[in-house]
Amino acid sequence: xxxxxxxxxxxxxxxxxxxxxxxxxxxxxxxxxxxxxxxxxxxxxxxxxxxxxxxxxxxxxxxxxxxxxxxxxxxxxxxxxxxxxxxxxxxxxxxxxxxxxxxxxxxxxxxxxxxxxxxxxxxxxxxxxxxxxxxxxxxxxxxxxxxxxxxxxxxxxxxxxxxxxxxxxxxxxxxxxxxxxxxxxxxxxxxxxxxxxxxxxxxxxxxxxxxxxxxxxxxxxxxxxxxxxxxxxxxxxxxxxxxxxxxxxxxxxxxxxxxxxxxxxxxxxxxxxxxxxxxxxxxxxxxxxxxxxxxxxxxxxxxxxxxxxxxxxxxxxxxxxxxxxxxxxxxxxxxxxxxxxxxxxxxxxxxxxxxxxxxxxxxxxxxxxxxxxxxxxxxxxxxxxxxxxxxxxxxxxxxxxxxxxxxxxxxxxxxxxxxxxxxxxxxxxxxxxxxxxxxxxxxxxxxxxxxxxxxxxxxxxxxxxxxxxxxxxxxxxxxxxxxxxxxxxx
Length: 490
Known about the structure:
Layout: E1 19-20, H1 22-41, H2 45-65, E2 67-68, E3 73-74, E4 77-78, E5 82-84, E6 87-89, H3 171-187, H4 195-208, E7 210-211, E8 214-215, H5 244-253, E9 256-257, E10 263-266, E11 276-284, E12 287-294, E13 305-310, E14 313-318, E15 324-327, E16 356-359, E17 386-387, E18 395-415, E19 422-423, E20 427-433, E21 438-440, E22 445-447, E23 456-474, E24 480-489
Parallel strand pairs: 19-24
Antiparallel strand pairs: 1-4, 2-3, 5-6, 7-8, 9-10, 10-15, 11-12, 12-13, 13-14, 16-18, 17-24, 18-23, 18-24, 20-21, 20-23, 22-23
């Protein structure tokens, strides 16, 4: 977290100084618990016991040393004395217990909720009182919030520039907070926050995913206006989406809670006043699960209330939108798989060694390395793309060097189509190197037959061995060719 209220009280306001943080300790605790549970599955008692002991120590330290009973919140702690601008932050003090703002009643940061992201804090110890600040306008609440620092903190600061965690709304932090809030509501007995608070914040988060009326998300936004100004420069954080948003819907709003056994457990946070909702075809423990709420039975015509399906068959029902647990059917033993699993020999997201990509021309803003990074998308920003914009040539080529002979049978070309000077070629040739010269790959079948943007153009052919392939793109009259990915399978 660059430029936060603690780092700004050190000599290096960007990076800060060593300390003990609610985030890192929560991550380490979750890692230790996970390793212990993996060891349990392997029947390996020694590491299971060792990592549970590590986890217990981390929890004890977090709750004993990072919790401030006076301010009722988890805070970072400085590891050593730090001096900046004539003020000293003393070792082993929490935010604002020493330094420029010593004695301040504020200092709370959204990261104080991260321990609940993993259900780390002990229940019935009073820690849940910290959640009062989430919904408080003088705390973290904002129209496009939550803010990363409570509003009244003396160092609260909004910036139209990258990487300031001193007050902006950060979608990643919001997703962590929502996950933590779901856990509090589903696993803890408390009267501080409600399901309505979860829905309100999730709705705020969804509303934040917009720019100019279209779906969008950058790394940070103004918590009062939702503007991403200063935070989404070219090739920086455009479309800064996190897959955790899906988790907030599945495990939070709908309430599908993953477990280690074959019990499917639901703890929905959606309001019972809703007329209907459905979540379908969710892969879970060898099944495709469907969860449907139809308050009066008229939407899906499968009956009133909550209904749960596994592989298309109803396995549980309730007239109320309330917690529910049901045993999943047994899973058939999977069939033996063919040992020959297809491999994309063209992917290289490390950028060194092989495979290598060698184009005849590249626009300076679209490096060819994007062609083999394992990702494809078609929008202009961020630019996961290679284009021939500016090329003086009627055709250009892209060579993939494998570094060794590979037996291949399929290529996939993901053409762009911006309708603004970049699009699929009029036609293309796919060739292989025979050791002396480029030769057309024989007996090709193509789908679609004509080069088409915004989809994979799949070329299949009888298996052949080669150490490099080449696609020659003959540019269309409307503009130059562009690709977002070039895959070669075998």
